[in-house]
């Protein structure tokens, strides 16, 4: 009888050891899968609310419309997402030198940029606003004549400033980030700045001493940028098209804007 009990106890011990080994093996496999997870690096300029920005009241993580779309697409494709913050003017270079796999930063797919990088389809189209002090007297593009106007370095608004400077007769200066432009206006070092309309509206709401005038023409919409001939371009575009068609992109846009654009 003792022998039978001993054999039963031995059998239970062996089963327990095997189960423990199996569990450890599964845990090890899961850890290995996590370590081997594919990571894509997205470069952005986190000063462009509501597209990409840091809400310091909630944390240090970059959030926004572009981030939500990027997370949705990378998740659908089976990637983990790593977001890198840098000045807007360095984003194209980051793609070219391998620092980033793609860029989402409210970037317009201009002909000049298409010479250096590839783009997805457009996912959002916007306009521009001339931001100035409330007592500036600036009510239209013509009022910029003889003024000093700012724009963000490397942005579509910088291209618009160059274009209007020639036709209207003002000088323009570039700054790396939008908050710098606002501070320069408030300090009197710039008479005005040309800023993307939804971004400008955020600053107009927060800063009572500035005003805005919309420029009634829209340039090319925002798109995702990739290194030339990247295999990601086609895969991302397929998912982006599906998200546009099924209304997923529209839901994200409505989440970040008070009114539909």
UniProtKB/TrEMBL annotation:
Domain of life of the source: Bacteria
Segments forming domain Ionotropic glutamate receptor C-terminal: 39-259
InterPro entries listed in its UniProt record: Iontro_rcpt_C, Solute-binding_3/MltF_N
Domain spans labelled Solute-binding protein family 3/N-terminal: 39-260
Protein name, entry field: Transporter substrate-binding domain-containing protein
Signal sequence residues: 1-20
Pfam families, alphabetized: SBP_bac_3
Originating species: Niallia oryzisoli
Keyword Transmembrane helix included in the entry's annotation: no
Keywords, ordered alphabetically: Lipoprotein, Palmitate, Signal
SUPFAM superfamilies: Periplasmic binding protein-like II
Keyword Lipoprotein attributed: yes
